[in-house]
Design brief:
heterodimer, A: alpha+beta, 4-stranded antiparallel β-sheet, 21 helices, B: mainly alpha, Helicase, Ruva Protein, domain 3, 2 domains, 6 helices, about 0% strand, elongated
């Protein structure tokens, strides 16, 4: 199998080069046969890399320690699900996985566009093949997944204990899916720039890809936060680590992009900006990989850190320079007749929303690279950690939440003062009531009061927007409120899916505020049978039990949780020692309620008792609930919409009619 | 069109951002001057054990850095030291890297100001571009109000019918 894997990667590399050449030659010479051939080459590449993935998985599942990768990231005692996740635990495997996803997505995009966008598609496919060439070159010549090891060890080194967690089994694939799928809109944007087809066809064609990418970036970030919360055992979920930041930046940029494309679709404005954003989003995914693997910036995520940073940096520079040059080359054609009537308009709200989103992305980028900059300029090592990001990002986040409330209710073109009052009267009152309630509830931190008040305001705007739609439907077609709501959402799924996502962001925001400002911690050493309290809970330590398996040794404490003298839960935090790596890991026990999470860590134990680190974190449940709402909203937004398909078909036929004189560049079969 | 309007807007945007940055400084727990708590200080120090977390968040039970430092912080607070004195002590002992945010001085000022300057610059560019677009956009039509109203009501009826069909 390893030889088959090696061979298939070599064939895929050759096919990728052929795919670029055939796509470009076929498009320039208008030879459909070459474009068809290039598409088949792309699908063949996908098949070849699939074979390589199966070959590596086969090595991992059969514990073939003659492969260096398997010996480094697996062991014969590793549970089978984690043998699968070992595929992306190390550098070679994760690059192979990345390439595989890239080729799956490229193949799907090639299939979707086999009869559409005949001018842009070949160039987009050439760009995707170009990205594949880079990754396949890495896999064939620099960091090979099928390298053997001599002498063959009797046992593997096992998977890093921190990665032996179900969230880690799904967090990297989600994030990679988000990262890699951003390549498709990027490639079509580049294709539009190369061909000069600069209308919004490339945006409409790849809109679902952009949402898909955003969705998986959201999931990836959320799963990563959940993993940190459950595994790292410090009671938090986000540490502003460089690798977390690297995953957060593309999310911010893709969020900005999803908003700004609406302006281009509606008003034919911001062409350069949208092209720049998608280029930036893609570049940041490469930057994220560069950070993870280069070691330039120290990170707790350096599981796969090696010396391939310079290759990624070079690739990043080529992408940024090439794409920027294309934008400059088309600058004159990208100028569009812009219309802007008033700052009190949705266009203005979107513009400022983009400013704040990119401002936050820049702040995160700046904070992430500043330690490296300081060392290069002053020779002094510094740390840029949570106080910096919270202080700089906090005000910008508040501004963003405010704009999230303003944008949907404000009209396109212009809004009068009367309309503003009618639209925002109720939400403003709700914001004031929320602040007053929080004040009465004992909250005195003005930052928190402002955040909660804003949350109340934005919640009010979402409710008003739904209420307006329902009322309009009831007025026009006499429906019941429930069916009006269902029809409203299903027939305008993109818009109302977006509002559900806004609601999710808002709920998550409340969770972040509550959990950041009101967390309490108690650290206690207790003997068996003793109790201690945190908040309204009394924790009663009942004892410890150990389990010894060939893979790990676990010690699990039993802690009875009482509230007002009545048992409310039995919690079992554990300490695990993985035998291969002799590294301890924590398994926290969490009792989650909408009001607060009780989070119990078994920090240590001996014959005299156990030490517990216990956190009571308010509202953290809402962060995950917000994530679920964002997922629901994205599904709603991505539902097939007959009206939209009709509009796209009409736009495409108009475009075809306009070009009826021109000879089609690609085949129709 | 003079540049006064964009300039005014830019100044207003600058004022908002200056306020925001002042607010952000106030929000930074590491620089609170009086009555420090252990949590505030520990949040402002980075653990040197390699965990990458702050001293407040390092969860290694036998951590050779965060465990003794937490005890040290308690004793310093008990001796009446201010947060500035405690941070100065650790900075002198371990270097700047022990602080979890760069002190706002010298070269590090760039770290704190650049994000806000970037947003300020972006905001100014938006204002300038938007004002240009406003100039370029055709002026709203001014017709006879009575006739418009008639037209409006006819249009409204037609629009209602079309919307109903869509629904």
């Amino acid at each position: 199998m390893p030889d088959l894997g090696k061979l298939s990667l070599a064939i895929a590399f050759v096919l990728a080069i052929y795919s670029i050449a055939a796509n470009v030659y076929g498009a320039r010479r208008r030879l459909p046969a070459f474009i068809v051939s290039a598409r088949h080459a792309l699908w063949a590449m996908c098949a070849m890399v699939t074979i390589a993935v199966v070959a590596l998985l086969s090595g991992l599942l059969s514990s073939d320690f003659s492969l260096e990768y398997v010996a480094s990231y697996s062991s014969s005692t590793l549970p089978t699900p984690y043998k699968f996740s070992s595929l992306w635990a190390g550098q070679q495997g994760s690059l192979l996985f990345w390439t595989w996803l890239l080729l799956i997505f490229s193949s799907i995009a090639a299939f979707q566009n086999r009869r559409k966008n005949p001018e842009i598609t070949p160039y987009a496919m050439a760009v995707l093949s170009g990205v594949a060439v880079f990754f396949l070159a890495m896999l064939n010549f620099v960091t090979r997944p099928f390298d053997p090891i001599f002498p063959v060890p009797a046992q593997g080194q096992d998977l890093n204990p921190l990665l032996q967690n179900y969230w880690m089994a799904i967090h990297p694939p989600s994030l990679y899916t988000g990262y890699v799928s951003a390549s498709v809109p990027f490639a079509f944007g580049a294709g539009a720039l190369i061909t000069g087809k600069l209308d919004d066809a490339w945006i409409r064609t790849t809109r679902r890809w952009a949402i898909f990418s955003w969705f998986f970036l959201t999931l990836g970030n959320m799963f990563g936060a959940r993993w940190a919360y459950e595994v790292l055992g410090w009671g938090g979920y986000w540490a502003w680590d460089p690798v977390e930041n690297a995953a957060f930046m593309p999310w911010l940029v893709m969020t900005a992009y999803l908003h700004s494309v609406m302006i281009q679709e509606r008003k034919d404005m911001l062409k350069v900006w949208n092209l720049a954003l998608i280029g930036l989003g893609f570049s940041l995914t490469i930057f994220g990989t560069f950070i993870t693997r280069s070691g330039v910036i120290s990170s707790v995520h350096s599981f796969t850190q090696t010396g391939i940073g310079p290759y990624f940096l070079s690739f990043l520079l080529v992408v940024v320079a090439g794409y920027t040059a294309l934008i400059f080359y088309r600058a004159r054609e990208l100028r569009s007749p812009a219309e802007f009537e008033s700052y009190l308009s949705r266009e203005a709200a979107f513009l400022f929303n983009n400013l704040v989103l990119i401002g936050i992305a820049f702040a995160v980028f700046w904070g992430t690279i500043f330690p490296a900059l300081s060392e290069a300029v002053r020779g002094v090592k510094i740390t840029v950690g949570p106080p910096f990001f919270n202080s700089v990002g906090g005000p910008l986040a508040l501004a963003l939440i405010f704009l999230m409330g303003v944008g949907p209710l404000i009209a396109w073109r212009r809004t009068t003062a009367g309309n503003l009052l009618r639209s925002f009267g109720a939400p403003i009152v709700l914001g004031i009531i929320t602040a007053a309630a929080a004040l009465i509830g004992g909250i005195r931190e003005w930052y928190v009061l402002a955040a909660l008040s804003l949350a109340g305001f934005v919640f009010g705007t979402v409710v008003v927007e739904f209420q307006r739609g329902v009322n309009a439907r009831r007025h026009m077609v006499s429906e019941s409120p429930a069916s009006a709501l269902v029809n409203l959402v299903s027939k305008n799924n993109r818009r109302y899916g977006g509002y559900i996502i806004h609601l999710g962001v808002l709920v998550a925001f409340v969770g972040v505020v509550g959990s950041s400002f009101f967390k309490t911690e108690v650290k206690k050493n207790v003997h068996e049978g003793e109790s201690f309290t945190i908040g309204p809970y009394q924790l009663h330590y009942l004892g410890i039990s150990t389990v010894d398996t060939p893979h790990l040794l676990s010690a699990t404490a039993r802690v009875e949780v009482l509230r007002n003298g009545r048992q409310t839960a039995m919690m079992t935090p554990a300490k695990l020692v993985y035998k291969r790596q002799e590294q301890p890991a924590t398994e926290v026990a969490i009792r989650s309620t909408p009001r607060a999470d009780l989070y119990v860590v078994l920090a240590g134990f001996d014959e005299n008792g156990a030490t517990f680190d216990v956190f009571l974190t308010p509202l953290v449940w809402w962060l995950w609930a917000g994530g679920v709402l964002m997922v629901i909203g994205t599904f709603v937004a991505m539902l097939p919409n007959v009206r939209e398909r009709t509009a796209i078909a009409a736009a495409l036929s108009r475009a075809a009619a306009a070009e009826s004189g021109a000879e089609p560049a690609a085949e129709r079969g | 069109m003079s540049l006064r309007a964009p300039l005014r807007s830019a100044i207003a945007a600058a004022a908002v951002l200056v306020l925001a940055s002042a607010f952000s400084g106030a929000a930074a727990p590491a620089f609170a001057a009086e009555r420090p708590t252990r949590a505030q200080i520990a949040e402002g120090l980075t653990c040197q054990c390699g965990c990458g977390l702050t001293v407040a968040n390092c969860n290694h039970p036998q951590c050779s850095f965060s465990v003794p430092v937490r005890a040290e912080i308690d004793s310093m607070i008990a001796r009446g030291m201010t947060s500035a004195q405690i941070f100065a002590f650790y900075r002198h002992k371990y270097g700047e890297k022990v602080l979890s945010a760069p002190p706002a001085e010298g070269f590090n000022l760039l770290a704190w100001t650049m994000p806000f300057l970037a947003v300020l610059l972006g905001g100014t560019l938006i204002v300038i571009a938007a004002n240009r677009w406003r100039l370029a956009a055709p002026a709203p039509s001014t017709g006879a109000p009575e006739r418009d109203r008639e037209l409006d009501s006819a249009l409204k009826r037609k629009l209602d019918e079309e919307i109903r069909e869509q629904l």
